[in-house]
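New to this. Help decode the following:
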Amino acid sequence: MTAPALAHSTDLGRMYARSLQDPPKVPSITTVIGQQAMSLDGWIGYMAANAVAQHPDLGAAVGNPGQLRTVVRDSSNAAEQFRDAAAARGDRVHHYCEQVSLRALDRPHQLQEAREALAEKGEENFALRFDQWWEDYAVKPLDPEITVWNETLGYAGTLDLVATIGGKLCIIDFKTKGTDRNGQVKSLDAKVVMQLVAGMKAEESIVDEAAGTWEPWKYGQDPILLGVAIGETEVRTLRANPEVLKSHWFKFASLRRVWQTSLEAAQAGTPLLEIAPPPHQPSN
């Protein structure tokens, strides 16, 4: 996950401030979407079991309870390690995508450094596939990594890219995805539609983070909303179905209310109070 200047990690999730001097005020788009329940129990169990099966010391540990406990302990956080590694890879790929946009806009960029960072991790194919996608779609960037705000509902977020493609205004969200056994990049989760429509419904965008200067959002008038899955073998471009945007916006607004009620419950006071046994009643 990238780290926009106005974003803060809090006990209530990622939140945004109005300026570099202000405290965080509203939840991020991804924090709101995260209120939706999602169980990863099966995946976590599989990752742990798979880590045990592939542990280099498993053979020697069989029949030795002490060594076996060490193997289990080493493997128990496999899902967490995988998640953290995937997030770091996603940050590197997103950073590269941003640098491509900055170069196209003739702004200062670190494209070479970003490319080298991917190459050092054996991830240069992500850059190669993205470069081909950029050329095939003739992307013309307008604003990369732009922070937006909606005061009415109370949320903020940072959009990966606003651009024109084929003369059409597009709001684009990049996702780094793995490849399946057939060599195809895995598809996107439907939650990306909520993320995109929340960006489209922004009311302001940042001008100066230090001063806290904002301007009316100028890219929300009927843009095409694109989720772009970037993999090592290909890039998949998916459009949010215009027919479902209203429903996904209502779902996002409902999740925002869930976040608010969770906040209010957390601030309401101590949820559980000690209670003493009743006074002893003398027998007659």
Observations:
- The mean pLDDT is 89.
